[in-house]
């Protein structure tokens, strides 16, 4: 539990420093989203060697707890690794331990970045925000 609290306060401190440097302009939604991500057991792993596959990723992170899924993201056109992936743990505690231990470490000759994964934001379409294009409103 200590690791989770330490990670939480580290992230909170980072958000507060960002808020101060931007004169309080960091949106509350951004702060809440960051805190919410810290309660996740899903990790983002960046900077992976091109040769890393799902099993290699799982093996590298299984020392911190039960990995329920490990996935290297592949390019649709070439079928090659895009250099990042995701690891899911059975608990937040195991995920926190992995972040603390693996962030900045060498994996296959490359330094990997490990952080709590954030949900992908939905892409806005042109219909969002009442976009009307070239329509005239003087009918």
UniProtKB/TrEMBL annotation:
Record key words, sorted: RNA-binding
A GO MF label: RNA binding
Domain of life: Eukaryota
InterPro entries xrefs: Nucleotide-bd_a/b_plait_sf, RBD_domain_sf, RRM2_NsCP33-like, RRM_dom, SLIRP/GR-RBP-like
Transmembrane segments: none
Coiled-coil annotated spans: none
Domain RRM: 41-119
Stretches the record annotates as Disordered: 117-139
Biased composition (Polar residues): 123-139
PANTHER family, A to Z: HETEROGENEOUS NUCLEAR RIBONUCLEOPROTEIN 87F-RELATED
Protein name, per record: RRM domain-containing protein
Source organism of the structure: Salix viminalis
